[in-house]
Amino acid sequence: MARVTVEDCVDKVENRFELVLLAAHRARAISGGSAITVDAERDKNPVIALREIAEQTVQTEDMREGLIHSLQKNVEVDEPEAGAAPVVQSERRLPMLGRDDHSSDTQIDVLTEEQLLRGLESMTPTEPSAQIGNNPRDRGSR
Predict the structure, then answer these.
(1) What is the pLDDT along the chain (142 residues), one digit of tens a residue?
(2) What whole-number distance in Å separates Cα of residue 17 and Cα of residue 89?
(3) Does pTM top 0.85 for this prediction?
(4) CA atoms of 18 and 60, how far apart (whole Å)
(5) CATH 3.40.1550.10: does it fit domain 6-71?
């Protein structure tokens, strides 16, 4: 085939928009290393994809499924059957109306403002940061 045109492909894929989508998807697959089913003849990947569609060397249904799969964001995952794996019963505490049992709550340490300030003061360096830059070695590098 010397030159491929849209008319060569429209009888295989009737919708021109779908033809463009399929050819582009096939061209990307060729770029990704997919095997070429026609003689390349130094053609670029989009031309090779159109020639493959025109000569029907690739199944358009397979290309359509591949295109749909590549555009899907959420792929359905088959859930295992109920009998395939045993169900493990977990011990869950049922919600209670009224007051909860505080013995099962997580204990949180409470700090006063004074305790927090003392802790922060103990983390500060003993030498003031104003002495940085007063070093004679620092002056020579300016």
Answers:
(1) 457 777 888 888 888 999 999 999 999 999 999 889 998 888 899 999 999 999 989 988 888 998 888 888 876 777 777 666 666 666 666 666 666 666 666 777 788 899 888 888 888 776 666 555 565 555 555 4
(2) 53
(3) no
(4) 10
(5) no
